[in-house]
Hints:
Elements lengths: L2 H11 L8 E4 L9 H14 L6 H7 L4 H13 L5 H16 L10 H10 L3 E5 L5 H10 L9 E2 L12 H10 L6 E5 L2 H9 L3 E5 L6 H6 L4 E3 L2 H7 L5
Amino acid sequence: MYTTEIENYLRKTGFRAFTPKAALFDMDGVLYDSMPNHAYSWHTSMASFGIEMSEADAYAYEGMRGVETIKKIVKEQRGVEITDEESQRMYDEKSRIFSTRPMALMMEGVKELQEKMKACGLKIVVVTGSGQVSLLEKLEHDFKGLIEPGMIVSSFDVKRGKPNPEPYLKGLAKAGVEPWEAIVVENAPLGVRAAQAARIFTVAVNTGPLPNKMLADEGADLIFNKMTDFRDKWDSFL
């Protein structure tokens, strides 16, 4: 059913074949419906430091490492560079507020999608810019039998977060596959940009308030509006 999208991907990358052996999932807004909590925490914590960050901004910056997001916003609003230590202190406050929010629920349809992928022989890897320990600790419990220990790339594992391709390149390495042997499942424009820079077929599932055009403009190879749509279409994808 998606022959055209796959042909466009092969033409764009110059690869001769698309043979998925692994699926690389973002976490926030993909595995968990956690972005509303993140958006609230970003807005509230940054306001306490006199920095304006709307909840819409949180969605636009999603995927970037938190300390990098803060340094970028402070530079834009105040015209100054802050140290890693200052940025980390501000991010710690964001993390504190996030930890007080209700625990995010699993995204509807995502576990069934992974079960279908696993049945097709695909390895599952999580590639997230998050450093929220509370969510990372939930992964192996909530997705037991689907996400194996060690198959997670988080902000603690990279020097350069999304939109740099490093997180997804590390995800490929963990799975032991090449770019044409993987699929990325993302919801954020910066995450799509990172996956495209790594030359991986990118499925964007728009679970947030941003327009589909933002995902398409970053190069998403295929866009769904709900995770359940991708789950239901999986059998016709390969």
